[in-house]
Amino acid sequence: MTDLTIHTYTAAEPGLFVNSYLLETTDGVVLVDANLLVSDAKALAARLDALRKPLLAAFVTHPHPDHFNGLPYVADENVPVYATTAVAETIAATAADKRTQWQPVYGDQWPDRVRVPDHRLDDGAAVHLGDLRIEVHDAGPGESHADSYLTIHCGSHQAAFIGDLAFHGTHSYLSDGHSSAWLRTLDHLADDLAGITLYPGHGPKADASLLSDQRRYLLMYREAVGRIAAGSPTLTDTQKTELAVVLTRYLPQAPLSWLVALGADAIAAELAEERAAA
């Protein structure tokens, strides 16, 4: 009988409650995403060491730093790091700018080096690691400029690691401005991932209804931005506060509410461009 144990490491609020996953099998461990801050990455590495099994590989679901920053602290240079070509290329192109943007906020908790995935995969490619078969699916732009998700098979066990294609219990990051494409992706994923347990980048595991919840959130966000912006590609600070009130009422207990205002201008610009093209 094939054994698979999925261990979840979840950061506290400063680390955006981001999840990293350790997939433990008889032969070793596979890492999915690597957390944001140095302290969390070191704690994740300690969790891995406690399993007393080799790290076979790491996978990165998308090119936001809370999913790849910790790689240098968890995966030795001889451990292959897999991602879609689009994810790897976007990390290579944006990691320096992300450090410039966020290191003043996080100080020495922001890593001083980056590891770009060195094994690039096409959509639908499969990687066999011991008892695990991992398929990588390119989802295109959505929550980030280059999303992907993983489906894993281990004996009779199936699961999907969906990165930030759906947030579970927190507000969403929309600053990359691809909400329309994200909605289209969610439409087909609901069928593709039906009946499979989903492991999101933020929040606890869930079934495919999580994708419908995310779709409703995006529709609410787009409607509120469109109404408040009234055609403008940007929002004033007062309008962003109004938007935050609307979304906080929609998810009254959800953390990371500061993300609501952060993404407002990107979605206002996206909506203005859609209207101009119509």
Describe this structure in words.
The protein is of the alpha/beta class and 278 residues long. The chain has a domain at 4-165: Metallo-beta-lactamase domain (Metallo-beta-lactamase, Chain A), CATH 3.60.15.30. 40% of the residues lie in helices and 22% in strands. It has 9 helices and 11 strands. It has helices at residues 38-51, 65-68, 71-74, 85-106, 179-192, 209-229, 237-250, 258-262, 264-277, and strands at 4-10, 19-25, 29-32, 55-59, 81-84, 119-121, 126-129, 132-140, 147-154, 157-163, 197-200. The strands form 2 sheets. Strands 1-2-3-4-5-6 form a 6-stranded mixed β-sheet. Strand 2 and strand 3 (29-32) form a beta hairpin. Helix 5 packs antiparallel against helix 6 (209-229), helix 6 (209-229) packs antiparallel against helix 7 and helix 6 (209-229) crosses helix 9. The longest helix has 22 residues, at 85-106. It is globular and about 55 Å long. The termini are far apart. The mean pLDDT is 97.
